[in-house]
Amino acid sequence: EPEVTQTPSHQVTQMGQEVILRCVPISNHLYFYWYRQILGQKVEFLVSFYNNEISEKSEIFDDQFSVERPDGSNFTLKIRSTKLEDSAMYFCASSEDGADRTQYFGPGTRLLVL
Amino acid sequence: GENVEQHPSTLSVQEGDSAVIKCTYSDSASNYFPWYKQELGKRPQLIIDIRSNVGEKKDQRIAVTLNKTAKHFSLHITETQPEDSAVYFCAASRTGGFKTIFGAGTRLFVKA
Hints:
By secondary structure, chain A is mainly β.
């Protein structure tokens, strides 16, 4: 069964550094999402992406964040200048259609900002 | 803004008993309600979902009910087993929308 994959599984970085989290969505899916989950808390929507542009974003997704689909398979989340509070698990998800279709989550990238 | 409230935050049941988790949502335009199970350190996995044109859906030991008038929906797990122990999240989104709002989660413990 096809799965969403994410790399790296863990990332440790210094405050102020840039990080890029990578995701490979399921190949026939058209909608892509990033979520974050601070340890022990709920899953929070960050951004959705369709047709090579952001379709919706949350208030968390400020100017420090950006997303890109650099080629036909990868979907990336960039945090320009990391802060301590960016430490969280970041999940990528994809769906065939919009948010009202089953979203398949990747295994996550655990980001620790020191 | 949109919000999904989930209760209880923790639920402990004996193996074989039923477990019920309840959610309410604020956005009246929401019409898709998935439930996810998340085991420790793992990704959320969809276990069941319901759309606003039905009031109930069942899949083996799991059922979900929806009351659109009251804007609440519930997850029912019957004959619970230790492997049902996990965190369960409810969520809501709109048809044609791009954002899914999650509840705060319920940590379910099933005692053998």
